[in-house]
């Protein structure tokens, strides 16, 4: 691998599937780590079947590679192995001794029966950094429960502050439009792994990382959790409004909607000037953010009367010129066509056995060790023979025998 990759000296054994674990390992892979994705023979990661949509080949035929799987598995090599067999377990253990990091998201204790849990692996690889991702963690009364993003968004409080307010039409709790808890857990996992690596570099000691979706969800409530802890009052759903800042929400325009995100009193005064309602900035009810929060409903109603008078484009142009944070509410076609997205190269297309696999670029921009897009997300078992040969030294006869018994 290129010496220009920050983590090219590391190997990751990825026993995880679906989203949280693969998101963490994709981040490490983007930064240069050699990630070996271990999958079940025949079916692989569950998300391979989570479609439509599926990738099409150059002839327009559906390939069976789901868009969901493609979103979180680039820069990895796929190895199929049946870990329920002794031979399969030996392959994984041997790979662990040649790896720096193991990531898994089985239920608590799920890998112990195969001798692939942390306590078993650390006996043969004492420097290993072993990251376990579960719904509720390795301890506590819910430790045995399975955890799914939707469930965790509900139990962890996110849905209690997401959705329209109770007095509005369509009120009710709502999940976020992407599996945000899984994604955030993947980000926390990669950060924890890098911290453990830094410690190992100084001490030579590996460690176990216990990461729970539930913990992550509660931690990432941020100001909403702090609002409760300080006030003792659980926050309520406010739709697109902000609990601590006004005006900071969506507003109707003559041809759609836009977002206005006023962060201070100066920006509010500029907004009022552009909207031809400068007197509002001097009104004692609205002159400070504290008062605007108290008189939210009155102010928002007055502003909405104004914003309906012009198109989204006209408002955005005028407000941007005045230094008021604002923008359109884009769909994904508009996002990827946006000049900023184009300039930043947010779409990447990688060579794939089917032709080309599109994806979203990493947002990490390192000046000396930039992210490199080395591989498209792998087809199932694409690198099995390569890995068994190059990493473990198996010969053709051994590989053929494993394949004949459907161990790989």
TrEMBL record:
<keyword id="KW-0808">Transferase</keyword>
<dbReference type="InterPro" id="IPR023606">
    <property type="entry name" value="CoA-Trfase_III_dom_1_sf"/>
</dbReference>
<dbReference type="InterPro" id="IPR044855">
    <property type="entry name" value="CoA-Trfase_III_dom3_sf"/>
</dbReference>
<dbReference type="InterPro" id="IPR050483">
    <property type="entry name" value="CoA-transferase_III_domain"/>
</dbReference>
<dbReference type="Pfam" id="PF02515">
    <property type="entry name" value="CoA_transf_3"/>
</dbReference>
<protein>
    <submittedName>
        <fullName>Acetyl-CoA:oxalate CoA-transferase</fullName>
        <ecNumber>2.8.3.19</ecNumber>
    </submittedName>
</protein>
<dbReference type="GO" id="GO:0008410">
    <property type="term" value="F:CoA-transferase activity"/>
</dbReference>
<dbReference type="InterPro" id="IPR003673">
    <property type="entry name" value="CoA-Trfase_fam_III"/>
</dbReference>
């Amino acid at each position: 691998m290129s010496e220009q990759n920050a983590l090219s000296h590391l190997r990751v054994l990825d026993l995880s599937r679906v989203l949280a674990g693969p998101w963490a390992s994709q981040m490490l892979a983007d930064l240069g780590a050699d990630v070996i994705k271990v999958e079940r023979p025949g079916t692989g990661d569950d998300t391979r079947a989570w479609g439509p949509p599926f990738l099409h080949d150059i002839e327009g035929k559906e390939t069976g590679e789901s868009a969901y799987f493609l979103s979180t598995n680039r820069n990895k090599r796929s190895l199929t192995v049946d870990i329920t067999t002794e031979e399969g377990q030996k392959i994984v253990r041997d790979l662990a001794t040649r790896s720096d990091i193991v990531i898994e998201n089985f239920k608590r204790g799920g890998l112990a029966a195969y001798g692939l849990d942390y306590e078993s692996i650390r006996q043969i690889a004492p420097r290993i950094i072993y990251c376990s991702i579960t719904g509720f963690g390795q301890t506590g009364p819910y430790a045995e429960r399975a955890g799914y993003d939707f469930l965790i968004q509900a139990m962890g409080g996110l849905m209690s502050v997401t959705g329209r307010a109770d007095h509005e039409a369509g009120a009710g709790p709502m999940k976020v439009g992407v599996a945000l808890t899984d994604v955030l857990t993947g980000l926390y996992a990669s950060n924890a792994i890098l911290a453990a690596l830094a410690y190992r570099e100084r001490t030579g000691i590996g460690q176990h990382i216990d990461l729970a979706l539930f913990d992550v969800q509660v931690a990432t409530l941020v100001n909403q959790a702090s609002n409760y802890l300080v006030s003792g009052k659980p926050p309520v759903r406010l739709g697109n409004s902000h609990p601590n800042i006004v005006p900071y929400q969506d507003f109707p325009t003559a041809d759609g909607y836009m977002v206005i995100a006023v962060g201070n009193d100066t920006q509010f005064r500029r907004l009022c000037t552009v909207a031809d309602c400068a007197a509002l900035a001097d009104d004692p009810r609205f002159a400070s953010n504290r008062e605007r929060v108290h008189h939210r409903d009155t102010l928002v109603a007055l502003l909405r009367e104004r914003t309906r008078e012009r198109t989204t484009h006209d408002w955005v142009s005028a407000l941007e010129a005045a230094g008021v944070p604002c923008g359109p509410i884009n769909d994904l076609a508009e996002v990827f066509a946006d000049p900023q997205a184009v300039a930043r190269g947010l779409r990447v297309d990688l060579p794939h056995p089917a032709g080309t696999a599109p994806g979203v670029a990493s947002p990490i921009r390192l000046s000396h060790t930039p992210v490199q897009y080395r591989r498209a997300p792998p087809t199932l078992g694409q690198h099995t023979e390569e890995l068994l040969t190059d990493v473990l030294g198996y010969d053709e006869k051994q590989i053929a025998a494993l394949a004949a018994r459907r161990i790989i």
